[in-house]
Amino acid sequence: MQRVPPPKSPIAPALIAWQAHAGRHHLPWQETRTAYRVWVSEIMLQQTQVATVTPYYQRFMARFPDVRALADASLDEVLHLWSGLGYYARARNLHRAAIRIRDEFAGEFPQEFAHVESLPGIGRSTAGAILALSHGARFPILDGNVRRVLSRYFGVATPANERATLERLWQLAEICTPQVELAAYTQAIMDLGATVCVRRAPRCDECPLSQRCVARQTQRQHALPASRKAPVRPTRHAVMLVALNAEGNVLLERRPDSGIWGGLWSLPQFDTDDAARSYISQLRPSSQREPRVLGHVEHVFTHFTLVMHPILVRCAGEAAVMEEGSTLWYNLSQPARVGLPAPIRSLLQRVAEES
Ligand code: SF4
């Protein structure tokens, strides 16, 4: 029986040729493409631009050059190196996955798709990208950039958040994934989405897919992918306590593992002023100086805006630590290597400068 050759990708040859001269070739994770290095870069690049990721990636790799180094490190140190990059669940999952790789796969990054996809924080697209980029294995990918390219090229106009749309896009991703040159193709479609087929003002004149792109032919680049209605982002308020003792240490609490800033160290947080003031009474506040309200700080999360109202309290001498292990006195002039959310770090810098 004659074997039917697999269908040719409608976009791969043009994309691969374009990537060779116009794609990105000198990103730090492209130097040595081990699965570990690709994995860390893919996780860091989720929701985050290359320019932001690059210094974080370099510091992370210098400290954790392989899976074992990452698995053997404390979560605090991992979160410390992640501080400021946001979406901290990514760092916690990286650490958990590294421990599993060390313990279940003898420290070698797995090569089977099912094993890779089973690791914490790795979904179908990321698993495909890791195996395609590091081993040239044939798996489609569908990250945000690729969704945009495929939606426009094929004119997929149904709402982006519907299950049927996603299934259709995965089918198209499968059709477009070539049989050969998988690493080059995967890099090419990611690069096109990141640098040419960008969300606002796509540069269609420079695009290797422009001749057959439905969005371009119908002038619907801006309408695709069809956006879902953005929900109204609510605002929440929190009182943050900056308890400063005579040695220049600030009291921090470790946040629960789930929820915002999970596992990071932050200021004691309260829903109301009264709750904060009742806590203050346990801290031996200085009788000389009244608690002082500092300027508020806003931080925008994906689903809400947090308005923080800090209160500075000076403590007389060594105030008691409430629960060993979940609180620490953080020295402002010699900070411990622990993970702090970026707005809390900035607030503490401000306090250090003023005190
Ligand atoms: S022609 Fe324009 S809209 Fe179409 S894939 Fe290229 S950059 Fe995107």
Description:
This protein has two domains: 12-223, Endonuclease III, domain 1 (Orthogonal Bundle); 235-354, Alpha-Beta Complex (Nucleoside Triphosphate Pyrophosphohydrolase). Strands 1, 4, 5, 6 and 7 form a five-stranded mixed β-sheet that branches. The protein contains 14 helices and eight strands. Helix content is 41%, strand content 12%. With 355 residues, it is of the alpha+beta class. The protein has helices at 12-22, 35-45, 50-63, 67-72, 75-82, 89-104, 113-117, 124-135, 144-154, 163-176, 182-195, 214-217, 273-280, 342-354, and strands spanning 235-244, 249-254, 265-266, 269-270, 292-293, 297-300, 305-314, 327-331. Bound molecules: iron/sulfur cluster. The site of iron/sulfur cluster (SF4) has 14 residues, from helix 9 and helix 12.
Topology:
Layout: H1 12-22, H2 35-45, H3 50-63, H4 67-72, H5 75-82, H6 89-104, H7 113-117, H8 124-135, H9 144-154, H10 163-176, H11 182-195, H12 214-217, E1 235-244, E2 249-254, E3 265-266, E4 269-270, H13 273-280, E5 292-293, E6 297-300, E7 305-314, E8 327-331, H14 342-354
Parallel strand pairs: 1-7
Antiparallel strand pairs: 1-4, 2-3, 2-8, 5-7, 6-7
Helix pairs in contact: 1-11, 2-3, 2-8, 8-11, 9-11
The protein binds iron/sulfur cluster.
Residues 149, 152-153, 196-197, 202, 204, 207, 209-210, 213, 215-216, 221 line the site of iron/sulfur cluster (SF4).
What keyword list fits this structure?
8 strands, Nucleoside Triphosphate Pyrophosphohydrolase, alpha+beta, 355 residues, 12% strand, Endonuclease III, domain 1, three-stranded antiparallel β-sheet
